[in-house]
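Support request, please re-run this one:
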Amino acid sequence: PMSLHRDYVPSSWGMYYPTIWDFAMFFGTVGFFVFMMFMFIRFFPIINIFEMKDLLYRTTKLGDQKRRRRKTADVTPVVGGGKGDE
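Re-run finished. Output below.
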């Protein structure tokens, strides 16, 4: 005859106490995740888009043309067009 003080599933008869293998599996999984994250960062680094655009601007002919135009625009005097010239 079956008693009511135990469940039908034998695994629920006692308390669960983790073993060294359970802790090893947990810390191994966390360590593997951290390792793979560092490998991802090592081979696919995060690059600042502003720095890449600035580098592209400084190393292309378009950047040279814009710089030349800006230098000539700086020396030409501005006549009129201000708020007080109405």
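The mean pLDDT is 78. The helical segments are 20-43, 49-59, 61-75.
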